[in-house]
Amino acid sequence: MPVDLLSGISVALAPLLPWPVLGVLIGFALLVVLVAALRRARGTLLRLLAVLVLALALINPSLVQEKRDPIKDVAVVVVDESPSQAIGDRRARTERAAEQLIQRMKGFDDLEVRIARTGEGAEGGGAINETHLFDALNRAMADVPRRRMAGAVFITDGQVHDVPQVPSKLADIGPIHTLLTGDRNEGDRRIAIVQAPNYGIVGKPVELTIRIDDMPGRQSADAAVTLRQDGGPPGTIRVPVGQDVRVDLPIAHGGQNVLELEVEPAKQELTLANNRAAVVVNGVRDRLRVLLVSGEPHAGERTWRNLLKADPAVDLVHFTILRPPEKQDGTPIRELSLIAFPIRELFEVKLDEFDLIIFDRYRRRGVLPQMYLENIADYVRKGGALLETSGQGYASPLSLYRTPLGAILPAAPSGQTVDRPFLPTVTDVGRRHPVTAGLPGDRLDAPPTWGRWFHQVDVTPNGGTVVMQGAENRPLLVLDRVGKGRVAQLASDQIWLWSRGFEGGGPQAELLRRLAHWLMKEPELEENDLRAHVDGNRITVERRSLTPDPRAVTLTDPSDRTSTLQLADDRSGRAVATVTAGAPGIYRISDGERTTLAVVGAVNTPELADVRSTGDRMQPVAEATGGGIQWVTDSDTGPNPGVEVRRTQPDRSQTGSGWIGLRANGDYTVTGVTDVPLLPVGAVLALVFGGLLMAWRREGR
């Protein structure tokens, strides 16, 4: 059991007998001496001296001297590289303060300095939405025992979002100091999204709640807010400052609807990045209403019905014309049809309620008057969708092309039909169109793997885009835009052969699904479009075009800095480029013709919620660990700029005006031990026998 006397020197006790035995012997000897003392025997003191020397010899004390090598303490400098540090002169002050601090720390031989930056070692590759300095500190000192920690210094603007809820648990790290890089009495204005839905019904508005704050407390009466939806023309509203305000966002289409909001600058601004906000609301269709009119019963009729009924979001209204009006054979009326064809209700009263109208193998037979066909043409021009699948009747004088619909149909019949086997193929432009690009079974260097068809109407395109061809490279599938609406024409009624698996079948379900969604203007199937996808802090820019487009796109970041991206074309109608976002916010991408937005980070990212420099968040940590909070600007001037660094004892003050302290722990490792007995054997025997002899002689007188 060593007993410390001085640093590196101690006394060790190694008794020659067990302590209980040793205690009994020493106690008995002392009892004999006590009895002699009570009898006033001569030589009692000499006997006591001999007993004590003998007892000390049995205890066997020795002097232990350790050879110690000091262990360096560890101090961590955490440098904040979050986006808010790019405001004003903060970045320059941070680097200057870090350089000065590290140089002064390196002047201590017993101190190891480690530097941790918030941009290093982050997990997940996500966008920088928060400042996590304590995560960086924990990574830097992961392999260091707490007893070796001298402390830490944070160089930051004070907006730290991972401060522990119980700062007292950090006390064993040592003092944690904060050097603030901003200016005192800063002010800023921000716009925040208080409430926003993730989804909305197409055609119906959704309600947003926004709020504008002037910080710290300098509230203006109101402010102008500019709103822009999907990069369209801007609109302006006046919004009271410091209050929650409701704004209606119309959901114009399916997919992402992006509303961009920007509030005018205040008199005092740190950054305009938090003067902007964006809301992304996914538009979904409540129910898709499809009207399918089959001109006559045929084998492919069920293909359409099965496809449309398989989707629970589709309301299908299907009528098949079983008997033309001119046929008179005396059949009772009650046996002609289960349901009367409500022509006026469908094609006049409720026509605009349908999202898609399909004419399947229809020919003029007097069922639909010309007036109703004109209504359908107007319905398409106003934004509706029409799909015509041609049967034998399209090549006859009874063709739909010879009705008001002929003005919007993209292909005119020649009057001929092709009745021989052929393999439907995708055209070169069709391989760039999202409706037919990458269809399962299509191959660039060989015929497709799907089955043949046997009937096709010969048509001549007078507009639109031919994406598939059939016999002798005749147009098979033609897509066109008419006014605000869309039209598709399939010059054959034999796609049902694929659904029956003839010769291996084909991708009829995928083709018809894409075709219907393109007609109903699903954004993912736009053939000429610019869009951006966000995954964490990675922005993928994609441009679709029917012809290769060599133009670069311009990327504008939340700080209004611009850069150029060159997109790589993959020969399938897509040109793609990927860039890493350096900060959360709204990124604008434009190719000069189209513009899209990318929203990186949360709707209300904490990193931009309050960008003022403050020590309020770090004050509990400073109090719990004995650290201090100082402003870089206070020590950035003078003959010796920068904060002073001192090595302090653990029980002393760790901070003061213009200086910070780092705890001196005095830790070490023992590399050798020297053990020297305090009572040599010869000396002990001489003292014991000498004492006893002198006591006997004294007693004999």
UniProtKB/TrEMBL annotation:
The lineage of its organism: Bacteria, Pseudomonadati, Pseudomonadota, Alphaproteobacteria, Rhodospirillales. InterPro entries: Class_I_gatase-like. Signal peptide: none annotated. Keywords: Membrane, Transmembrane, Transmembrane helix. This is Glutamine amidotransferase domain-containing protein. Coiled coil: none annotated. It comes from the Bacteria. Residues 634-658 are annotated as: Disordered. The chain crosses the membrane at residues 16-38, 45-64, 678-696. It comes from Azospirillum thiophilum.
